[in-house]
Amino acid sequence: MDYSVGQVAGFAGVTVRTLHHYDDIGLLVPSERSHAGHRRYSDADLDRLQQILFYRQLGFPLDEVAALLDDPDADPRAHLRRQHELLTARIEKLRKMAAAVEHAMEARKMGLNLTPEEKFEVFGDQDPEQYAEEVEARWGETDEYAESQRRTASYTKEDWQRIQAEAAEWGERYVALMSAGEDPTGEAAMALAEEHRQHICRSFYECSYELHRCLGEMYVSDERFKAFYDAMRPGLAEHLRDAITANASRHTS
User: Is the dihedral of CA 56, 58, 62, 65 positive or negative?
Assistant: First the structure.
């Protein structure tokens, strides 16, 4: 069977203009033309379009997509294997993004039941709702977000002051640990990493070891978190990440 450009656009969820462009650049040239010169696409053309759209969804530019699909040494199984690898990497990236609930989710309703004076007293010049919209858009459907929302909605000024004080005291001890030259995979560092995880569990949501491992990676990869921890002591973000990883491994292996 063959299909018109309009039919193919409907099947694939793309515009006719997009298909025309793919034809013009040689990325997807229809196998046939009607007597009137209209494009007609075969099943093989649809298969190629599926491959094109897959790579486009993963962010590949059109010239790279063409190079991948026109590789004479590649076969359909090679494309499937590559797609599986890319999807696995995307899933891992999304999992790590979801792990960002730890610090960012704290902002959503942090201090909504406080007066402006109390907010300033607890948080100083840091706006606890600075990333509220971003947080809700990215993680609003997660169980961790819901649990954090439920708990923090009822927190008083004293609750927030206690949480802030606990975090500050932990930070001082971690700086002292690094100053003493402790290895991040040593017992002392892993113990403080476990305290960090337990603080999240007590204050916001149940933080599994796997989720905590993801948070550790985020502390290094997200410049906002890296700046926060490195402000305590240069290199603290990486040190803490390694301690969290070691602590998670010993509890899950």
Answer: negative
> Residues 6 or more apart from 106 whose CB is under 8 A from it?
128, 148, 152, 204
DSSP string across the chain: -EEEHHHHHHHHT--HHHHHHHHHTTSS--SEE-TT--EEEEHHHHHHHHHHHHHHHTT--HHHHHHHHT-TT--HHHHHHHHHHHHHHHHHHHHHHHTTHHHHGGGSSTTTTS-HHHHHHHHTT--TTTTHHHHHHHHTTSHHHHHHHHHHTT--HHHHHHHHHHHHHHHHHHHHHHHTT--TTSHHHHHHHHHHHHHHHHHTS---HHHHHHHHHHHHHSHHHHHHHHHHSTTHHHHHHHHHHHHHHHHH-
For residue 109, give the nearest of 125, 133, 137 by alpha carbon: 133
The reported pTM is 0.51
Tokens of 198: 């337990």
User: Do 176 and 187 contact (CB within 8 A), yes or no?
Assistant: no
Q: What is the mean pLDDT of each run of 10 residues along the chain (253 residues)?
A: 92 93 95 92 92 84 86 70 77 66 48 52 49 56 77 81 92 96 96 96 90 90 88 95 96 78
Place of tokens 């004076």: 117
Token pair 């975090």 is at which residue? Answer: 167
Tell me which residue has tokens 């450009």.
5
